[in-house]
Write a structure and sequence with these properties.
Number of helices: 8
Number of domains: 2
Strand order of the largest sheet: 25-26-29-30-1-33-32-31
CATH superfamily of the largest domain: Kelch-type beta propeller
Structural class: alpha+beta
Shape: globular
CATH architecture of the largest domain: 6 Propeller
CATH class of the largest domain: Mainly Beta
Largest sheet: 8 strands, mixed
Oligomer: single chain
Strand content: 25-35%
Length: about 625
């Protein structure tokens, strides 16, 4: 019966989508998604059919159509295991699937035991054995004389005589005397990293982000005292292809220099990631201006390039194995940048909450501090990265220890510095903020929405109290909140939106022992369109005729079930906070997966939902 209902649902969707195919390229239909007319914006909910996995303060990431869930808690201040829970999203009629992945390292950091090689002794003649016995006695005396000198040289030769199997492949930790010797010489202070396992320990309040096929994890709270974990700035890496854990420790400073700054241990912070920088010069590239792809292909096809014929051969006489020999894995050398912000710091380390922003360059393994975000330090802020190239870093909400933050959307322009020596063709150096202004903010001024003084009667924002106590149906700006979901999604044509969902509107007076009040609304913020895109052309056309395009404004999204016959999705997820979310990416550009969280009954939720904008 279930298969029949699924077939009928797919058939209905197919017939309903047929009349809409000819109107898809139409330009006027695209901006209607972001218009603030009476109809508003639409969104749908679909509940995932999976076993319950209750938890809060966890993380969720999507890679190649699979959701990876890590950490969290079921009971307050008691982290769950360090397994990676994977959920395959439904696609092409296939249902969702769930499985757990045990935490395993790529390779143990402890040296492998040396294999014993058996020795074979051949029998010798008696005459030869008698003569050799005398020589052995003389050799023993010589060995006794040289024993002391050999012991002195043994330390120097031990490193050279090590076999490859004895050398650990993970980042080595300096000995206990490393910092002491540096301080004794007066050449700077060196921070000795703590001894850590090869896989991340169970934790809550950590932050993760995706670069390529790998999930990067930083921080969190755990251990017997449930304090922020001090891991010396280490970033944990989970490879979704091998399903193994590795780690990246910050690069040490050069001899005689102070240690490179790194973020303090923290929990309940936010993280995003970008694939930039991802263009690097290769040592194997010749010191000459590289050919374009068209020239290289023509020379190879016609056999007119001696270099191409020598390395790759010709179509008639190809050189087998050259491409495989020179193939490289971008993840092996590393690329991209992990960005973290805010969070709760350890007691006695200064302010209770942070406002700093740090960027970790994966290739160089160096932490770089960006300008601090405006306002007081906070935990539970929502962070998103929108746009192309370096992108724009957005922040909303958070809890500063006294009240929920809101009333403004902060953003920081990012870019990539490029080094071009006219030989290697250009190399992207590092991600960095653009301009000297630093962070900027879009503020909410009551009836004036982000500086718009003249508002159409059909879209006139009503009064909304600044601290987020107003009815979300009567508000023109999202209420103040923390531990919410903020994701950047695309709806095609270069149009991008920030989607804000759920979050805590009023904190509990009992801390983690009780639950506060939560939001159940969904908001969309129209991001400025990229240049030379269909969305930018439509925005320009509307500005010429004097019509607003909705850029830089919030719109409350009206939600409904994705399938009218799906009873499980009829009521939607309901109000909650402390959730984990991730965009579906190439699988569905306008889709977001929300998993778990905490409701007002102080119950950890174990359900998963797919939200689709539009």
């Amino acid at each position: 019966m279930e298969s029949f209902n699924l077939l009928r649902r797919r058939t209905t969707e197919l017939f309903n989508s047929m009349p809409a195919v000819p109107s898809m390229p139409s330009m006027p239909s695209m901006p209607s998604l972001g218009s603030r007319g009476s109809s508003g914006m639409k969104g749908t909910w679909e509940k995932l059919d999976i076993p319950p996995l209750p938890r809060s303060s966890h993380s969720a990431d999507i890679v190649a159509g699979t959701v990876y869930i890590f950490g969290g808690e079921i009971e307050p201040r008691r982290p769950v295991d360090n397994d990676m829970h994977a959920i395959t999203l439904p696609s092409s009629g296939a249902q969702a699937d769930y499985y757990a992945i045990k935490a395993k390292p790529v390779k143990s950091s402890t040296p492998a035991a040396k294999l014993a090689v058996p020795t074979v002794n051949e029998p010798k003649p008696e005459s030869a054995s008698e003569s050799e016995s005398d020589e052995d006695e003389e050799d023993d005396e010589d060995d006794d004389d040289d024993e002391d000198s050999e012991e002195e040289d043994s330390d120097e030769d031990s490193d050279d005589d090590k076999e490859l199997s004895e050398v650990p492949l993970t980042t080595p930790s300096p000995g206990p005397n490393a910092s002491a010797s540096a301080n004794a010489k007066g050449k700077g202070k060196s921070i000795s990293p703590p001894e850590l396992p090869d896989v991340p320990a169970p934790r809550v309040g950590h932050a993760t982000a995706v670069i390529g096929h790998r999930i990067f994890l930083f921080g969190g709270r755990g251990g017997p005292d449930m304090a922020p974990l001090d891991e010396g700035g280490r970033v944990w890496v989970f490879d979704t292809r091998t399903q193994l854990w590795s780690f990246l420790d910050p690069s040490p400073a050069a001899a005689g220099l102070p240690d490179i700054p790194r973020p303090a241990p923290r929990s309940y912070h936010a993280a995003v990631a970008t694939s930039k920088p991802d263009t690097f010069a290769h040592p194997s590239r010749p010191n000459s201006q590289p050919h374009t792809k068209v020239e290289a292909w023509r020379d190879w096809a016609l056999g007119t390039s001696a270099e191409a014929e020598h390395t790759h051969g010709t179509p008639q006489r190809p050189v087998v194995g050259v491409l495989a020999e020179r193939a490289t894995d971008p993840d092996a050398d590393g690329y991209g940048t992990l960005i973290i912000h805010g969070g709760c710091l350890a007691e006695g380390s200064g302010p209770a909450r942070a406002a700093d922003v740090w960027a970790f360059d994966v290739r160089s393994r160096v932490w770089q501090r960006f300008p601090d975000a405006p306002g007081a330090g906070r935990g539970g802020a929502a962070l998103a990265l929108g746009g192309t190239a370096g992108g724009r870093l957005y922040r909303f909400g958070g809890f500063d220890g006294e009240a929920q933050a809101g009333g403004q959307l902060d953003f920081l322009e990012l870019g990539v510095d490029t080094f071009d020596d006219q030989v290697s063709g250009g190399e992207e150096a590092v991600l960095c903020p653009r301009g000297r202004a630093g962070w900027k903010s879009l503020l909410f001024f009551g009836n004036e929405d982000v500086g718009y003084k003249e508002v159409d009667a059909a879209t006139r924002p009503l009064h909304a109290r600044r601290h987020g106590d107003a009815d979300p149906a009567d508000a023109a700006w999202p209420g103040n909140r923390s531990v919410a979901s903020l994701e950047a999604v695309s709806v095609g044509g270069g149009r991008e939106y920030l989607v804000l969902m759920f979050g805590e509107r009023e904190a509990s007076g009992a801390g983690h022992a009780a639950a506060g009040r939560f939001w159940d609304d969904v908001w969309a913020f129209q991001v400025p369109s990229e240049g030379m895109s269909l969305a930018s052309v439509a925005d320009t056309a509307f500005s010429v005729v004097g019509r607003r395009n909705g850029e830089g404004s919030w719109t409350r999204v009206e939600t409904a079930p994705h399938d009218d016959e799906d009873d499980a999705s009829a009521e939607g997820p309901g109000s909650r906070g402390w959730v984990a979310s991730a965009t579906m990416g190439a699988l569905e550009e306008n889709g977001i997966v929300v998993f778990g969280g905490l409701n007002e009954g102080n119950q950890r939720l174990g359900d998963g939902w797919i939200f689709r904008l539009g």
